[in-house]
Write a structure and sequence with these properties.
By secondary structure, this protein is α+β, with helices and mostly antiparallel strands. The chain is built from seven helices and 21 strands. The chain has one domain: Jelly Rolls (Sandwich). The strands form four sheets. A six-stranded antiparallel beta sheet has the order 1-19-16-21-14-13. Strands 2-3-10-5-8-12 form a six-stranded antiparallel beta sheet. β17 and β18 form a beta hairpin. The chain binds 1-hydroxynaphthalene-2-carboxylic acid.
Length: about 350
């Protein structure tokens, strides 16, 4: 590849007259702007251990009342992108959120899409677009763009969940903002999608909601994975995508959610792809090999595999399955026509 001219080859007086007119020569920056063969990323392989997060999050509960926080969250920031950027990857934000018994997080809506994987607690609800979504460990609850949402917790212990949002994307395109609202009266009953391939019909019609399913209860997801495992050849990965049950599309516009079951002792390689991917342990103990980095992941740990990395996952137990929830940026890549897998 040809090497290109650099800034220091140009006369200072020429550069100064360009700068004074808001003009910049392209060629000294062209290779950085458009690297050969593969994109560059600041996103690093990274692990956030639950055993580190939980005590620090509980301390936030002591230090900062809900009124002072609105959302009491510790952000899982990727050091490669700079901690202040509050990014896990180019498009994905991750945060661990705490709601204590009796607390409410006030109603609002915004452009970013959100989803939550419940980590700990029982008795909490998120009210999304008027639908009350109970939160139990392992559940995935969606808060799509512009749907009102607030959190309430009347249960006994702390409620903790992992927030996954596309905030960095919305910020990058100057579209991130929110609107505060009044407390919602739950008014929209959930449509029960009992099983794949069966859609409820009420008053003669299927759901016309843009987001017909907002809560994916873990008990059902786990049972579906178990059933899939018994019907697949033993060497095929047991993987389910969280989809919009009426359209078959990804459950959110910008982030794809899925869950992988690793049978006892199973080792699998996920396809290498252009999009960055987050891993969150729902159950079990896994060793992840991301390019050359080995990470031991245990229950409720979270990790980041940047785009284009190779990813090998091994269940460290020979007795029990492991369950890994995943969130990746592939919908953005697909919509832009730049998704690659090889
Ligand atoms: C948000 O709305 C929530 O509703 C949590 O619980 C975290 C991070 C950035 C922007 C909006 C929530 C958020 C957020």
């Amino acid at each position: 590849m040809k090497s290109l001219g650099t800034l220091d080859e140009l006369p200072a007086e020429y550069l100064e007259s360009l700068r004074a007119r808001n003009l910049v020569p392209l060629w000294p920056s062209l290779r950085a702007l458009l690297p050969p063969d593969q994109p560059r990323t600041a996103t690093q392989v990274c692990r956030w251990a639950w055993s580190d997060i939980r005590p620090l999050l509980m301390r936030a509960g002591d230090l900062t009342p809900m009124e002072k926080a609105e959302r009491r969250v510790l952000v899982l920031a990727n050091p490669g992108r700079g901690l202040e950027a509050l990014q896990a990857s180019a498009c994905i934000y991750l945060g661990m959120q705490l709601v204590l018994p009796g607390e409410n997080a006030p109603n609002h809506k915004h452009t970013p899409n959100a989803a939550r994987f419940v980590v700990e607690g029982t008795g909490g609800v998120t009210i999304v677009g008027g639908e009350s979504c109970p939160m139990e460990p392992g559940d995935l609850v969606l808060t799509p763009t512009w749907l009102w949402h607030e959190h309430r917790h009347k249960g006994p212990g702390p409620m903790i969940w992992l927030d996954v949002l596309d905030v960095p994307l919305m910020v990058a395109i100057d579209c991130s903002y929110h609107i505060d609202g009044k407390t919602q009266k739950p008014s929209r009953p959930a449509w029960t999608y009992a099983s794949g391939g069966l859609a409820p019909v009420r008053d003669g019609v299927r759901s016309t909601a843009e987001y017909p399913l907002l809560r994916y209860p873990w008990a059902r997801t786990r049972a579906a994975l178990g059933a899939l495992a018994t019907s697949l050849p033993s060497r095929e990965p047991v993987l389910l995508a969280y989809i919009n049950p009426e359209t078959g599309a990804d459950c959110l516009n910008t982030i794809s959610f899925s869950v992988l079951m690793l049978r006892p002792g199973e080792e699998t390689m996920l396809p290498r792809m252009s999009a960055a991917r987050m891993l969150h342990m729902v159950e079990g103990d896994v060793q992840a090999l991301i390019d050359d980095t080995t990470l031991d992941l245990t229950q409720s740990d979270t990790a980041c595999a940047p785009g284009w990395t190779t990813l090998k996952l091994q269940n460290r137990s020979s007795k029990v399955p492991a369950f890994i929830a995943m969130a990746d940026e592939s919908p953005v890549h697909r919509k832009l026509g730049i998704f690659e897998q090889r």
